[in-house]
Structures are given as structure tokens and as C-alpha cells.
Amino acid sequence: MKDTSIDPYNRVAWFPCLAHFAMSFKDLNNDVLRDESSDHPIQQILNHHALEDGSHWKWYLKDIKSLGLDQMMRFSDFLKFMWSDEMLKTRRLSNNLVAMCRYQKDPLLRLAIVEAIEATGTPALSTMALVSEELKALTQNRYFYFSGHHVKVETGHIQSGMEHDETEKLLLAIELTEEQEVQSMQLVEQVFDSFTECMEGLMTFAEKHSFDELREKTHPMRGFDTAEMALMG
């Protein structure tokens, strides 16, 4: 991503692969993390975070259009692509995060999961923003998901409605039991492992496919041919 000798378009050749994660994040926040029936102060903070974070999928769709990837494609071809073996690690990330938050009812442990997710976002989005600036200079298109626009709303912490320093002070004041501490560390490691696996999958995809190849396959009435579908499983 930081190698400016590589065409900026090819440095985001993996972007369509992120669709399962970007769109599942909508459900993760709006359907899984939110619990309006709870009066637990940490759960109320999680609710506030989910309300803000659960709308970022709209930015992803805007960027797909701005990158020229929003052309007509057979729905069956899109499904084969999104649920191909090449997309497995990205789908696994989405599924793991949903499962972790769905079945973890302790708000403090849910908070540990969300904080781990946010910790991955800051370096990733900052790197993506550099590429989006190069593309903006070439196309005059404005980007939202992989851009400085997204970076500005990600503080590296849960979105609590407070300033960064206030949020950090709140987090540092939380006391965990020994059992909660052990569980939270396990959950954080699971989050990091899942993101690492996803990034490895995206890297593998980007090494095999050029951006022009992807754009060609999303032109009207074109899709993946039979041979390509067989390779995808």
C-alpha cells in the first residue's frame, strides 16, 4: 500500500473483496452490538458507538462507484465471487466478529472486542488514505471509506461521544476481575488473528489480480467465465 512505485489503482485491487466485511459491519453494529434494553453504562456507550460506526457501509458503496466498479454484473456471478475460496478469509473475519459479539453478553468483554477492532482501524485507514489522495489527484473523485474522511472519525477508541482524552480516561479507569482480564486478552488476540488472516487473503488476491482485470469483469454483460468459476470452487 505504501509502495508508490506501484500504480495506485493496483494498490486497491483488493477493495471489492472487502464487501463482505464492510456490509457485515452494518449488521455487527446495528443488530449485534446494540442493546437498547440494557441500562449498563458500558452497554450504553456501545450503543452510541454502534449508531455511529454502523453507517460507514454507505461510504464503501460510494467508493465502489467512484472507482468505476459499480457496473452491471450478473447477480449469480457476484455471489460466486463473494463466496469464492478467495474471499473465505474476509468472510471468516466478518463471521468471527459477529459470533464473538453475539455470544459475549458481558458489556466489558464486548468493549474489549470493539477496542481491538478500533485498534486495527487507525493504522489501516491511515495507510489507505495515502492511496486515496493519489487517486483523487488523478481522477478528481472524492473518496470516503478509504480516505482521510474515514480517518477523521476514527480515534482509535470506541465512539463514545466524548473527546479522545476523555474516552481514554474512562477506559483506563475500568477495573476487570482476573477472569475478565484473561477472557479479554483471549478475545483481543482472536480479533487481531482474524484481521491478520483477512489481510493476508487480500494481499494474495491483489498479487494475483490487477485492478483493470476487475473493472473489465464488472462491465455490462460480462462476468467470470466458467474456467474462472471452477478455479474459485
Architecture overview:
By secondary structure, the chain is mainly alpha-helical. It has a single domain, classed as Heme Oxygenase, Chain A. It is 67% helix and 0% strand. It contains eleven helices and no strands. The two termini are 28 Å apart. Residues 219-233 have low confidence and may be disordered.
Second CATH tier, the architecture? Up-down Bundle
Low-confidence stretches: 219-233
CATH class: Mainly Alpha
Largest sheet: none
Number of domains: 1
**What average pLDDT do the residues reach?**
85
Broad shape: globular
The sequence of SSEs as H and E is HHHHHHHHHHH
Counting DSSP H or I runs of 4 or more residues, the number of helices is 11
Strand residue percentage: under 5%
> How many E strands?
0
CATH topology: Heme Oxygenase, Chain A
Estimated structural class: mainly alpha
Kindly provide the radius of gyration, computed on alpha-carbon positions and rounded to a whole number of angstroms.
19 Å
Helix content: 55-70%
Report, as a whole number of angstroms, the end-to-end distance. Answer: 28 Å
Describe how the helices and strands are arranged.
Blueprint: H1 19-33, H2 41-53, H3 57-66, H4 75-82, H5 88-103, H6 107-139, H7 148-153, H8 164-172, H9 178-208, H10 211-217, H11 226-232
Helix pairs in contact: 1-2, 1-5, 5-9, 6-9
Gist?
By secondary structure, the protein is mainly alpha-helical. The protein has one domain (10-232): Heme Oxygenase, Chain A (Up-down Bundle). The chain is built from eleven helices and no strands.
Any descriptors?
233 residues; disordered C terminus; 11 helices; mainly alpha; globular
